[in-house]
């Protein structure tokens, strides 16, 4: 793997954003809307609740973490979709570029875009609503890492799905975070779910993140066993996603499906 080729994939996305300011707006706009909407909802619940519970860390913090995961996934998929929409695959893979280098470039793009989104969310939540994740120290880092790796895994899997089913299959990708959120227990403990949903939640690394963060907010120590299990699961998802994408790519080259991307409409 050559770093220059990985950087070239990232630079292509950077040049696209520089040449089209409208591509920059999603990095700031949607996360800002989520932070403001959920932040004021949390304040309203604080004002009408008699329990004395502070909803800002539990609700706004959950939204921040889930948005971070979604931005990581979309950082991979949107960079891939740019090549789908421009029908650029033959140009890319006629070069010496390898699949690991291409995927690494997508991941590098995701790191950049999700970092920008995370910084915007942290800034808004801190300045407007007084929510500071820095108060939790290094306890936050493993949770962010798990969400990051899971976002990368789902992003690569989604790219493989579109490569297999065609450009119009991108509409299967956008709902993925929303479909997973009920099982991940973003806003409520996993114990509130029906038993069958709890079994699904046990297979999803984000469920351990949000259960663990609720414990940290409540003043409990981090459960190392849950963290280890979440890391094992998320690494398994990542390896599976990479193998899935590589297998789909080899099949697309062998059957000529990759060549048809140059002529097929993205609709």
Descriptive report:
The chain is an all-alpha fold. The chain is built from eleven helices and no strands. Helix 2 runs antiparallel to helix 3 (55-85). The longest helix has 32 residues, at 224-255. The chain is globular and about 65 Å long. The protein starts with a helix and ends in a 7-residue tail after the last helix. The relative contact order is 0.13. The model has no long low-confidence stretch (mean pLDDT 84).
List keywords for this structure.
mainly alpha; 267 residues; 0% strand; single chain
**Shape, please?**
globular
Stretches where pLDDT is under 50 for at least 5 consecutive residues are none
Q: Based on helices, strands and strand pairing, what is the structural class? A: mainly alpha
> How helical, in percent, are the residues?
over 70%
**Largest sheet descriptor:** none
The helix count comes to 11
Mean pLDDT comes to: 84
SSE sequence, one letter per element: HHHHHHHHHHH
Number of strands: 0
Q: Into which percentage range does the β-strand content fall?
A: under 5%
Distance between the termini: 33 Å
Radius of gyration, CA atoms, in whole angstroms: 20 Å
